[in-house]
Amino acid sequence: MQSRNNKTIIAICSVVFGLIAGAIIMLFFGYNPFSGYGSLISTAFGTPQNIGEIFSQMTPLILTRLSFLIAQQAGFFNIGMSGQLFGAWVGSVWFALTFPHLPDFLIIIGATTFGVVIGAISGFIPGYLRARFGASEVIITIMMNYVILYLGNDAITAVFPN
Question: Residue 141's domain spans which residues?
Answer without folding.
Answer: 55-159
